[in-house]
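Supplementary Methods, section 5.1.

A reviewer requested that the exact input to the structure prediction be made available. We therefore reproduce it here, unchanged from the version used in the analyses.
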Amino acid sequence: TTDHILIDVICTANSTQLAATKIAFRSLYHRDLEHVIKKETSFNFEKILLELLTCRRPDWGVDQAMMHAD
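The structure derived from this sequence is encoded token-by-token as follows.
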């Protein structure tokens, strides 16, 4: 894997896109993306990527009003 590609895909995708990405990765490489991340990354970088892959973010995008209120 290439770190910048992982960051770009995982950090910008919504839950539906992440789920589709994991399915496509499995179909193409016959391995789970989580397994590859565990094998090819380490420490805090591994932890954050795996947490982001849990797909617990909303699909509705960014609430601009909420963002500006913070």
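The mean pLDDT is 86. These observations are discussed further in the main text.
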